[in-house]
Queue: 2 jobs
Job 1
Amino acid sequence: MSLIHLEGLSKVYRVGDQEIRALDQINLRIEEGEFLSIIGSSGSGKSTLMHLLGCLDTPTSGRMEICGKDLAKASGDELARVRNREIGFVFQAFNLLPKLDVVSNIALPLVYAGVPTAERLVRAKKAAADVGLGERLSNRPPQLSGGQCQRVAIARALVNNPRILFADEPTGNLDSATGRMILEMFDALHAAGRTIVLVTHDPAIAAHSRRVIEICDGRITREYKP
Amino acid sequence: MNPLVAISIGLREISAHKFRTCLSMLGIVLGVSSLIATMALTRGIEDGTRKFMQQMGGLEFVSIVNKEPSSKKFEFANLSPGRTLRDAEALKQSANFLSHVSPEILLSTAVATDGGGNPDRRMVRGVYPDHFVIGMHQIHAGRFLTPLDVERGSRSAVLGDSVAKQLWPDTPAELAVGKTILIDSRPFVVVGVLALYEMEEQARSRKSGRSVSRRYDPFRQKNETVLIPFNTMFHELRSGVFPLDSLDTMKLETLTVRVDDLDHFQPALEQIRSILDITHRGVDDYDLETRQDWFDRMESSVRAARLSGGLISTISLVVGGIGIMNIMLASISERVREIGIRLAVGARQRDIFWQILIESVLVSFLGGLLGILASLGLIEILKSISPTENVPVLTLDAIFLAVGFAIVAGLFSGLYPAAKASSIDPITALRYE
């Protein structure tokens, strides 16, 4: 069984009288352990797809199964649970909480998973060490470089040991050298068996993955292996 | 989510915006402190009045007072002899729930020493020995009036402490016993001097040598009293004033009884009524006044004071709640992105809801704690300006009540911001700059 299974998935926004079909009849299967890229230009619908896959939103119609659960009509609590347990997010803008130190930022998903304080600390420290941030645990995000911030974000995404890692333009705010380092980290995670879905507009970055899906005007227009 | 986590997040949020939070707490601080102070103040008045009542006389006393007969009985009003010694005798003989019956007649007349000093006009009371208990007297020197004094109409007198001091300024009370005074030019032997009655506070300041404050003294009347036997009063002093009266038909100035046991207070009142209905020939020209009536009157005025104070405090608590709501709304519009991030990593809407609500309650609770501190200061100020017998009394339930109200205010004012925060869409929130 596929880890992610989409069938006839559509998302329609209504702006006044206008209907905007952000996603139109998407069919897609993603298997466990894949490293997949979704590419498309701005406004192609790739972000909408990402939000649906990331359980931040629900589709207008179609089937959406993630980790064996049908989530097309799921309640907010169910979606929150999947976001918490099965999915890790890495964003372009890092999206760390500036008021919290590195450890607390990494431990944030564990707070909502109901993990006790002591265990949270242990797991967050381990996740930080895994991304090479063993030193700067008590710093706060504004004191860190972009690459360090993104590594904190990756540690946060992985701390609850999710099955899927979503990355939305993870190198967009980084210089090319740091970006390369982050991508190498993804390679390593993939090699370790993690399922990774990378969303980008840049085919060169998508080339890191093993399978590329191109989206245009809400439809999958091309699929290839780099 | 663990509520402790929500509390620690809330505390961090509060400490990140100390000044803003303090400003928003101000209303709650005022509300809580004024509520506690009001309750302390009314409690103080209540205690003071109650202590005063205890010193003046207990609940077991009942005064029989005159009253206009009701319109139904108005035409028969002349049939009633009014309050006379017969009432007293009848009550004494038939009302077994009463332990003491004290009829009194008064006369304002000249009182002087036999040494030829200037006479003073004083209120002289003709009393029965029962007056000793009813008037809650204590003997300092000598003895009180006896049944024999009344029976024989002896010329004996018992003086209040102030009277003795004024008549013989340099003589201790013990030596005043046995001296002779002139009441309306008739010689009376002083057989006893009563104790000096004073409030605890007066006694304290007198002992420590400070000057006694010249405020209203509830015991003045008792200290200035001149008591003589009832029959002596009638035969020697009153019969000349009202020649047609006999001992039995003369109207009493006061008639006070003491109920034996408070457990059968109501039956005792029934007894008094049924006896007086006979002696008054069915005319309801009397009324029973109990200390309970005093208490009730006092309690209702305290309640009114408490209500108005409570109302003012409630208004400031509501205003404080609005202040908190305002600050919470400002806070969540600043924290849209944070809320988006929390949702993205798996917070449920209700986690966000509780977090904002708990923060709001925390602010109001801290405001409540500050309010307690402020109320302590406020009460100190009130203490220095309020009369000493009505010192404000801080009670634990006042504190709990006020803080409870503050928490409720925080709860209500947090509901709307919490609902608003939890309905934020994560995607929009994550894009929010």
Job 2
Amino acid sequence: MTDGALATRLVGHRLHLNHGPIDLVIGARGDKAEIERAYAQATAAFPAVLPALVAELPRLRAPHGQPPSGAVARRMVAAVAPFADVFVSPMAAVAGAVADAMLEAMVAGRDLAMAYVNDGGDIAFHLAPGATFDAGIVADVARPALDAVARLDAYSPVRGIATSGRGGRSFSLGIADAATVLAATAAGADAAATLIANAVDLPGHPAIERRPARLLDPDSDLGDRLVTVAVGPLGPAEIAEALDQGAIAAQAMADRGLIAGAALALRGVWRVLALDSAARPVIESRQA
Amino acid sequence: MTEALTDEDRAQGIVRCDACPVLCRIRPGRPGACDRYANVAGVLTRTDPLLLAQKVARDQGAMVPFLAGAEGWNGEVVAGAPTFVTGIGSGTTYPDYKPAPFIVAAEHEGFDTVTVVTEGIFSYCGVKVKIDTDRHVGAERAAVRAQGEEVGHVTTAEYGSQMLSLGGVRHLTGGSKREGTVTCDTLLALCNKQAVELTVEGGASMTLGAGRAPVIDGVIEECMRVGCGSATIGMFARQWRDHVDEVIVVDDHITGVLTEHQAGRFLDMRPAGIRVRGRKSTPGRYFQVAEPGSGWGGTDVTDPLTIVEAINPKIAWPGLRLLMVSTTGEDSAWYVLDAACRPVPAAMPEPVRAVVERIGENCEPALATVLFMAGAGGSLRAGVTANPVRLTRSVQSMLTRVTCGGAPVTVWPGGGITFMVDVTRLPDGAFGYVPTPALVAPIEFTLATADYRDLGGHMDHVVPLADVVRRAEARATPWRADNPWPTVPRPGGTGAP
């Protein structure tokens, strides 16, 4: 039995699209008829997305190879291309790339004040001049609560936000509870968040339990690489050290213009990358 | 790319999920990429099943246990059995990964009904816990804590019981983040019939779980008192009359003294001249003979003679036989007055012991019971009808039946849809939570199809029951025989028989 793609309406005039592991929550602000047309465009584009990805899965799970042909797959490859110096497969950007592609299909030809496609926390959004978008940041998926809010406006170049870390559906090589990244595209943010979360780490620390990814998921793109399965007690100095490693990686990406900002969380401790330009988003910590 | 599993895969217990084109290979104990399907002991299993409750088959009017003893019944839906779709696992609007509510059409005895099934997110929610004990658990209004966080308070005592009010919006979202999280954890555990440890400021430490005996300061509370001290006197006076000269029933609320009590006088018993401490209410009934505590009858008394203020030698007499007993019969002592009219412990005569044991026999088992109380807000009602206030009116005029995971609820009169439900009447694991923090509880609205149309229901979203039953993730659970079948139309509704 194969489930088809499903479209349902959520309260708050949002659209939910589901197909296998893809869950999109889509919202928009603007003229009601325009929103309906946008939702119709998104719903029409959606059923082809997963089959196209599945057709090229072997390529997308490999760090190198021929350029893929699918539109979403090409976005994935482009998003990880700047990181050729580390191991990363295009799968690191799959959620963000789906969000970007669906947003593009949805807003094409439409006049909307704001629109977003939220793919399991990796969000692509559209902002008309004057519009703003507040994105909540959750540090710990096991104990979810709104920890910080990123306020984005049309003057910022940011159109994607993604969070990676432990506790999500994907494996992490690091120990970050969350690495939230703002970037020009959701795919770019997704790839960067994955790598920053991997960098938040204490290599060789005895409290960190790791297992080969393949033992957990035989098809994982990470193969025999050790993924984090449990983290024991960490002292304040160790937490700071791990966050420093993540902040160094994030700063390097910011310096290359790949990301616009990042917030890292580990055991309730936050590290927010300096975001001083007026054109950059404001991340407000909600921590008491 | 439907490549089969290799022999090596099979040897490792890997299963292939064919629920979507990704065709995940899933190791034992692991979920697939979507987190909705998992490999549970080699079986591909939906992890967030929509729960169907199936009514016990009726055989000539008698209840037949639902597949009682049937080995290997795995919760699959049985074709043809009356089925009610509960809100459990039906999905909420937050977190946003789950589908929107179901609106299910069913036929009941020839009348079309609609059940709108959802899981509500309740920030305005909490539990009322009734603890069957006379023991002092804490002062009224004292804070109740879990893991060091204030999660509620002691509220007004009820008959033979101490009451706690836990949760509520102020603790869930009005305090610190940790207070909210701990409150949410505590409510979730209690609603899912798990035990929690609570401490009362200046009072007891307790382990409480719905439908289980409460543990108070490490002692399992086994029975609730038969009545207050005065009521106990009234119930057993006639049985004592021929064997005793005085009975004092020690109780934190009203301590009873037999020969002064209306019951003793009615039996022409001779006044014994034993004066107890405390404040006299009416003859033979005394308030506040001691401090509240975990001793005799919910007082702090461990030596019952401490509540005797004086024995009047002009009225009492040597050889007077005195029984002192608690309201549960758990504590008792027998005394005979000596020549100086001082009470001396003695062996309790058998007929007296029999009545003491009868007190215990008449005590009901002490339980902690948990009612979940919550209010259905605007957005939840909007999921039912385009005109939410009509749903409220329909519920209040009893055209629409509200159930919580199939269990009957009490809807509080007045505005909104605020309801209470006994959590033990829901299937296990029926409650969830969201990060807000707030509790997620199933809620179903059942009404005649015509009434649903009239109140502006989402008729275009109604799906036949059979389609829901066919869904891969539906899981069946036996219907509890003591829960009324919810699709029976209410009197006065358009669909009423």
